[in-house]
Amino acid sequence: MIDLAEIGQGQSGYALLAAQLQALLAGERDFIANSAQFAAFLFHELEALNWAGLYLNRNEELLLGPFQGKVACVRIPFGRGVCGAAASSRQTQRVDDVHAFPGHIACDAASSSELVVPLVKDGRLIAVLDLDSPRPGRFTAEDQAGIERLAQIFLAASDC
Ligand code: SME
Predict the structure, then answer these.
(1) In the structure, which protein residues have their CB atom closer than 6 angstroms to any atom of ligand 1?
(2) How far is residue 83's CA from residue 134's CA, in Å, rounded to a whole number?
(3) N or C: lower Cβ tally within 10 Å for the chain?
(4) Which of 50, 63, 82 most suits a substitution to test ligand 1, by most atoms within 8 Å of the C-beta?
(5) Of all protein residues, whose CA lies closest to atom 5 belonging to ligand 1?
(6) Residue 92 belongs to what H/E stretch?
(7) 23-45: per-residue pLDDT in tens?
(8) Domain boundaries, the chain
(9) Residue 27 vs residue 8, higher pLDDT
(10) Ligand 1 center to residue 81 CA distance, Å?
(11) pLDDT tens across 49-94, in order?
């Protein structure tokens, strides 16, 4: 296995992660199993994360799904916090300083920056992907593009 730490997470790093994720999910289409694998994959392959997981869309409310990290809040209304903003706007939220984000929900006091990607398939919001980091400004525009690509691979590989 190639050591990802030596490559970093520039464009070539995300290309490699995309190929690895395709291989990881090949042969299984169950949404929950693939969500659990996806969360674990991101948590362990991306540097400086303290939480990675999904919140599932349940009738316009977000419900905690498979994740890695400390225990988290279970239900988040659309429009609340960074996850709720991503769900209601269907736009990726890239927040350099969560403490400056109105309504941010602090599940883990260690979190400083956050990236939340809405997972939309055939016009339906399936879930949001939430990544937290203890490092302020952890997520660059390049990270956002790379992680959005990984999210598309996950959606295409899973029944939902
Ligand atoms: N910080 C998120 C809540 C989820 S936890 O980070 C796992 C938010 O403001 O929506």
Answers:
(1) 51, 72-73, 76, 81-84, 104-105, 107, 111, 114, 130, 132
(2) 17
(3) N
(4) 82
(5) 107
(6) none
(7) 999 999 999 999 999 999 999 99
(8) 4-157
(9) 27
(10) 6
(11) 999 999 999 999 999 999 999 999 999 999 999 999 999 999 999 9
One DSSP character per residue, 27-54 reads: T---HHHHHHHHHHHHHHHSSS-SEEEE
* Spatial distance between the Cα atoms of 125 and 55, rounded to a whole number of angstroms: 11
**Number of neighbours of residue 152 by Cβ within 10 angstroms:** 15
What is the CATH number assigned to the segment(s) 4-157?
3.30.450.40
DSSP string, 110-131: T--EEEEEEEEETTEEEEEEEE
Question: What 8-state DSSP symbol labels residue 64?
Answer: E
